[in-house]
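Exercise 7. Given the encoded structure of a 416-residue chain, write a plausible sequence.
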């Protein structure tokens, strides 16, 4: 009996020991990320990351001869829209002047749209061709109906219609400078196109959508040119009792809205065509190359735009302002004088996306990529906005990871 008890306790001890070992191993498995030594590499699949090129977005500043202040200089040229005042206290990274930048803003928005379209097209590589064609049929139907609506509700303000036959009988509302007959013929031809679309609506399908989109693309280009030519007449109109400035503004807005709608539909058709092509998988590499190219254009447009917003890389008090609202300034012109800490470093304060900085309870880091491994660089942080942050200490680093969430030093990554 005694031997049996001893054997029982030995077996029980073995079972308890084995169970404890399993629990410990499970704890290591589930909490490994938290308790693993930072020098130990995790065996995980490589993650794809995007890189952000650090640019000097906070203006250029140099010390004055006496070393007691900094001169902030412009990195762009243009008309001054706003500027800070003498006596203002500014933080590092604060905006102290802004140049007129409507064209730069438009270029940035266009680049953002092109990048989003490239990303969407690249993502379409994973879309089945059947799904892409189904979406394309819907795009065709939406585009044809929308264009017909634009023509009949906006463009036909400039054409006379027969109440009995519904046919177009003449040009009206704008002086056509001898081209009224030509405009009328072009509008009649477009009406025939609209009627063809209406007939084709019952037969468009996945089987013929590729050819239908190609034809629609050509038709939209023709209609877009027609609207452009019509809009070009508006600035040439002479102001009279019957054609007022208010009428001119209304015509400009009406035709501008019509062109915007048609342009948007052209982009939708282009995207549908790209989606069908990409869904075969044959153009995956080309799509990825287009994403990189679009990203390069976007970063360039963003850099140009950012330079119209003049920021100070140093904190302090503005003691003098060298420009006024309305002035035309050039690259390198003095903007303001800032009295700040004489120990302040001026050449390495930059603004980066907030997602590019990884925080711990006591430190902040950015991550770069070297031989497909993440390298952490400690930085000092400054002004924080809703989507960006000012950092210093990134000397010699050109490209950093755009989104560091879920990443850590030593991770294996692939850049795109």
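Solution.
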């Amino acid at each position: 009996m005694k031997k049996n008890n001893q054997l029982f306790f030995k077996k029980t001890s073995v079972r308890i020991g084995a169970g404890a070992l399993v629990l410990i191993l499970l704890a290591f498995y589930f909490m490994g990320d938290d308790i693993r030594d930072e020098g130990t590499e995790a065996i995980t699949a490589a993650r794809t990351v995007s890189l952000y090129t650090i640019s000097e977005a906070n203006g250029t500043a140099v010390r004055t001869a006496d070393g007691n202040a900094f001169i902030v200089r412009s990195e762009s040229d243009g008309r001054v829209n706003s500027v800070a005042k003498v006596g203002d206290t500014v933080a590092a990274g604060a905006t102290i002047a802004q140049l007129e930048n409507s064209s730069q803003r438009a270029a940035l928005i266009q680049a953002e749209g092109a990048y989003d379209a490239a990303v969407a097209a690249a993502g379409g590589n994973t879309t089945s061709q059947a799904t892409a064609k189904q979406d394309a049929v819907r795009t065709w139907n939406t585009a044809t109906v929308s264009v017909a609506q634009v023509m009949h509700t906006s463009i036909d303000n400039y054409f006379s219609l027969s109440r009995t036959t519904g046919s177009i009988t003449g040009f009206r509302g704008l002086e056509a400078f001898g081209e009224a007959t030509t405009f009328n013929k072009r509008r009649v031809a477009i009406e025939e196109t609209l009627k063809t679309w209406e007939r084709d609506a019952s037969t468009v399908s996945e089987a013929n959508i590729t050819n239908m989109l190609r034809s629609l693309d050509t038709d939209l280009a023709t209609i877009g040119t027609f609207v452009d030519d019509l809009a070009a007449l508006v600035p040439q109109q002479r102001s009279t009792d019957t054609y007022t400035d208010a009428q001119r503004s209304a015509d400009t807005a009406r035709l501008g809205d019509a062109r915007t709608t048609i342009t948007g539909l052209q982009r939708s058709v282009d995207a549908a065509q790209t989606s069908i092509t990409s869904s075969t998988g044959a153009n995956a590499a080309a799509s990825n190359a287009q994403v990189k190219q679009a990203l390069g254009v976007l970063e360039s447009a963003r850099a140009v735009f950012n330079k119209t917003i003049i920021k100070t890389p140093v904190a302090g008090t503005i003691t003098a302002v060298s420009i006024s609202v309305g002035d035309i300034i050039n690259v390198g012109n003095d903007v303001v004088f800032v009295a700040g800490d004489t120990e302040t470093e001026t050449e390495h304060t930059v603004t980066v996306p907030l997602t590019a900085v990884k925080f711990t309870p006591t430190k902040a880091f950015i991550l770069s990529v070297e031989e497909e491994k993440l390298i952490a660089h400690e930085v000092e942080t400054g002004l924080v906005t809703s989507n960006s942050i000012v950092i210093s200490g990134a000397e010699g680093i050109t490209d950093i990871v755009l989104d560091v969430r879920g990443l850590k030093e030593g991770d294996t990554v692939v850049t795109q």
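Remark. The helical segments are 2-35, 102-123, 129-153, 180-200, 209-231, 245-278, 284-306. Students should compare their own answers with the one above.
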